[in-house]
Task: structure prediction
Amino acid sequence: FVWLGTNRGLFCFDGTFFRKITHSKNGEFSALDAGKINDLFLDREKAQLWLATEAGASLLDLRTETFTDHVFYEKGKPGFTDGECTAVFKDRQGVVWFGVQGLGLVSFDTAFRYFPNELKKPGDFTGIYQIAQDASVDSILWLATGTGLTRFNKATGAYFFPDRKPPDGHEISLILTALFPTKDKIFLGST
Result:
């Protein structure tokens, strides 16, 4: 199957037909029902598909075709924003990471842990569009964000913001994707 996350929801292509995947719990709202799917991560080992949506994250068990929703905010609670999940990634240690609008990184193995941007730099985390693990250092995650490339140390919980202006003077800002083909190269897709 080919799984497609779109602005109109989740679709599955079987080689011939497209099928829209929907779910609701006794008429209750589901993260998948929000419509827009920002990112997908297929965990082949566990036969699970993680969805990053406008309303949080949803986990589809591919064996049973059941969903579990995860919401990253509570309405009316100070310090929480809209909770839009913009990226999802599973590292080599089996931890699932989420980029959450306004909150920064959230990890999940047996419980959720929040890693807010403690530096509170203006403009940081306008969105985490992709998460990738460093090719040679397991404790480092690289984040493609709305304000440039950011490094996150899983061991310390610290963020590092490289200089946004390389020697050629062209500022690197909105990074939509990052690829780490080898331990000494990074390719960035930016606007």
User: Anything to note?
Assistant: The two ends are 31 Å apart (CA to CA). The chain has no helices and 17 strands. The first strand starts at residue 2 and ends at 6. The CA atoms of residues 52 and 88 lie 6 Å apart.
